[in-house]
């Protein structure tokens, strides 16, 4: 029975006076003790309200059990009253007899044991954790003690035990028939277990964690608390994250934590989860069926685990899952690395949200004539801050649609320029994206300004390697042809700068030293290379002006100072670099 139904049935069982011994069983950690606490609060029976609960954890004899009961009952009896006086008088008389034999019998524990039958008379006793008793104490001894309490002391007993961890099951079955009047088996649902756990361990992501816990069918409250703690630790100080981000991290956090804390009855291991990819696994399962290999125990297990991960909402692993596993194994969290990954998920979520807004706008322009032009312009303007998250085709489409709306053309232009500005910020000189020459494979129309920007990037990235080829041929062959002349005449300072910033090591040495040779022999090279030599000087001027104290800035300054041409890039180049002449290996001279 679920927690709610079991509570109602337990209350009814305790009202029935013929039920002298009631047993509440269920799996470990499913809320049996919690249920008893709730029942005790709700009961109108004074004996139930004043019941004492004892745990058999570690008890190795019936004397230990009696002592635990006595220790719980003594505070409830207090001073005065017939029961109290009877216990005191009885204990006093017995103590006189015992101490005449040995002084050790005056100890409190022995007296408590002597007084236990008097204190227990007519009491409601709860005995918990039977399966955690010491191995010296057998189940038949416990049940014999219970039978004695019921028959001779008029006690009522509630036994709470974890049925899945009980060792002496045959004896338990035998005595259940003779001693137990009513047995209730608690089968807490995952939702009920989560609701109990989250009261002790609050979280900002309760709804998502609850869904994942239900999908995993975890019913152990202690394990669920640990799962929540792991999620809270991983997402600490993040506040309320976007639903998409939470949906990305909570499923894997839940399943990995449940695996680690043994919360799954039949679950995969870490390795299966880390290598999981939803679509690929589904394809493999279909292939296995076709080949008749789906009936093996291993194939059946993999299919069960695949369905479990699909139910949780887990699609595939990346470095986040690897860090979660490392945290679970070591207890040490790499907060910086996890923070960067979460930031990336946030950015990806924002980009997806921006695309959805753009698509929604296009839909409203076409299919919602009830929306006014002014409203559409406002919606379009709201997309400007997110323009950099959209692809170039979408931006072009938005610009076209903006032109069809009165007052929208200017806003469309702003979106295009915002996209170009964001693109340049993401890809500064030397860090241009490597665009395939056929990147626009489907020949989608692009806004002219966007197309110009993309063509410039392609030219810079393609020219970078070509400039180095020119320098290598001139340095090695002391010759060049029409191809080299054409490239050098058309090269721009921006392209030259990008080439300098994007190379290093031998290629950078070749590029800079050979280009310096162009400058030193300017008259000869300009006759063939035209403005290429000046493009190199202008590129170095830009680098040195922007970052004179960076390593590349100091290198450029030193090269010109060494060649006694510092004035070409900055009058104070030598002072700014602080480098002596010939400070760079191989300069002056040619490679």
TrEMBL record:
Residues 9-161 form the KAP NTPase domain. Pfam families: KAP_NTPase. It comes from the Bacteria. InterPro entries: KAP_P-loop, P-loop_NTPase. This is KAP NTPase domain-containing protein. It comes from Variovorax paradoxus. The lineage of its organism: Bacteria, Pseudomonadati, Pseudomonadota, Betaproteobacteria, Burkholderiales.
